[in-house]
Design goal:
Elements lengths: L1 H17 L26 H5 L25
Length: 74
């Protein structure tokens, strides 16, 4: 019985070592969850994305309306 338990533990170790953080994808991209922003108390999506490192809001300010605004990333 002890040997079966020991074998199960030894076989499970590599699986535990391969477990990934749930907020990171297979490509190494980080997924920010709502809990990541709680400390900032965001009111809008812009408040949230302003806290993401490397994210920059682009605004061409070309007076576009409707689908013409789809060039922005927020």
């Amino acid at each position: 019985m002890k040997s079966c338990l020991l074998t199960a533990v030894v076989l499970a170790l590599p699986l535990a070592a391969q477990a990934r953080d749930s907020s990171e994808t297979a490509h190494g991209d980080h997924i920010f969850l709502p809990a990541d922003f709680l400390q900032y108390a965001p009111q809008t999506a812009l408040d949230m994305v302003s806290q993401i490192p490397g994210f920059r809001v682009t605004d061409d300010d070309n007076e576009a309306r409707g689908f013409g605004q789809a060039t922005q990333n927020v």
